[in-house]
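Hi V.,

You were right to ask for the full record rather than a summary. Here it is.
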Amino acid sequence: MKLNITEEKKYIFLSLLFALSIGQFTFFEENHVNLVRSLANNDYLKLSEDWLANQIDHTPLFTFISTYVIKYTSLLGLNILHVVLSLICSISIFYICKINFSNYDFKKIVLFWFLILLLLFKEKSFAYGVAGQYILNPAYQPSMFGVLIISSLACFAYRRETLSIILLILSASIHPTYIIQAFFLICGYLMYLLIYKDYKIFFKISFLSLILITPIIFYLFTNFYISDLQVNLEAQSIMAEKRIPHHAMASTWFSYKDLQILLVITLSLCLTYKEKRLFIPLSFVVLITVILTAIQYFTSNNFLGLLFPWRSSVYLVPICSMIVLTKLLIIADNKYLKSDSKLNLYSAVLAFFLIIFLSMNGIFEGYKSNKNYKTNYPISNLIKDHEKDITRMLIPAKLEQIRLNTGLPIFIDWKSAPFKNDAVIEWYDRIELSNSFFNASNLEDQKKLIIQINNKEQISHILIKDNDKNLVLKDCKYLFKEYGYVFYNLTECHNVM
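Predicted structure:
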């Protein structure tokens, strides 16, 4: 299917408006913790001395890309990359829908289509996947590169098999949790090629997939493999049952809403039946996802949960939702819109201005987020006033923004867990030590805990809630007492060190 240049420009422009509508969180909050290594590589204050920054990187390509984008463009480049990825997502979904309904002239409903896509992602119910997982989010993070999976599916549908595989493996290279999704889709592609006896392409993409995925597997195996079964089981239990049960345990996240999503996906498969290059890969992914999810639900297997087989939903849900909605748009056009050209024109104009409004609103929301964040999180600036004396801070584990906003090393926080199993155990041990200190009710326990913490890493400063039982620090001189917190320099507390 070929498009003229004018059409393509129109679709790119509308996709750009969609991308702008997503909005962006200010740096650094939410999941921007993934940038800790990239910032450390760029000598961002003292982050290179942080414990997390020195753990083995499970997203080295993401770190590499982000490091050099920051180096040559500062953080602006990440903002632009966020928009580009959102743009790719919009265009890819559009072309998937377009080829699935190839006998229909999309020019007639293109404005309505993009308006619905925009509203879908703004509302999120049928744009986000299950288990709190998604592709597009106001925070720039590795999961955003999952848009390349959608692009891969679009390329396969348009007979661009080689590019399809490259994009698929690239998404897995940037975010390794997409490896299983890459495997699902590759199997789906190969199944189609076998059914239609295209053996040349079958062997071509089989070989290409093997060549491209081998370095990823090699990196993960050599850097993250641990032979000690007990260590693996303990780390899996920590992550799946304590840190991210909302992502990893089907019994935790599954609800009636997910049945609604499954219904939409099933309906979309019925609508793609004639377009076998979409139907067969999508059907295979849905089938294997449902089977593995059911197994995890009934067995509560932590290893399977941490593979996130249901992560396929992050691209299945928006694609399938838009396929269903596209069909409804076509029905509406055939039945109502074409009967009154004036109504059609007025509706199109209204749709266009709504797209403009929502896009500008997305930009405004990002600006508002930045402004409010600076206002509501000034404690970071107070800490940075003492950065020369700070080597490492002990902070409440829930204050996950402190590390990046100050650029200073911390002992631990709850948000930022490492990937390797022995490091996961160490992370959780630090969490328990930190929580025990802040919850201790007597002086002797606090002193013992300070010693245990310092045995792991020497801390120089403590940030504690003003209303906590800071018994061990009560005779120490604090550096500031603001916004409900007190900040101490331990080197000046001789009764502590």
